[in-house]
Amino acid sequence: MSNHKVSYQCLTPQSFLERSVAAFHQKDAIVYRQQRWTYAEFATRVNQLANALKTGGYKKAIA
């Protein structure tokens, strides 16, 4: 066994996206045919959709 400590942080889809934006802000996140979205643009759209769902009355599911 190794004596090295491991840094562990649970990655949720949101935290993964936030880390990706911080690391790859202007790099392509999605390429579909002739369209391209950077990580920053993708994060903006994801957050807009999440806010629209919250405003529309959708709530976090309890598992």
Give a quick rundown of the structure.
With about 60 residues, this protein is of the alpha+beta class.
Mean pLDDT score: 88
Form type: flat
Low-confidence stretches at least 5 residues in length (pLDDT < 50)? none
Radius of gyration: 16 Å
Instruction: Enumerate the strands of the largest sheet in spatial order, edge to edge or round the barrel.
Output: 1-2
Number of strands: 2
Order of helices and strands: HEEH
**Which structural class best describes the helix and strand composition?**
alpha+beta
Q: Tell me the number of helical segments per DSSP (H or I, 4 or more residues long).
A: 2
Proportion of residues in β-strands: 5-15%
* Helical fraction: 40-55%
Task: Summarize the main sheet.
Answer: 2 strands, antiparallel
Span between termini: 35 Å
Chart the SSEs and their pairings.
Layout: H1 13-24, E1 28-32, E2 35-38, H2 39-55
Antiparallel strand pairs: 1-2
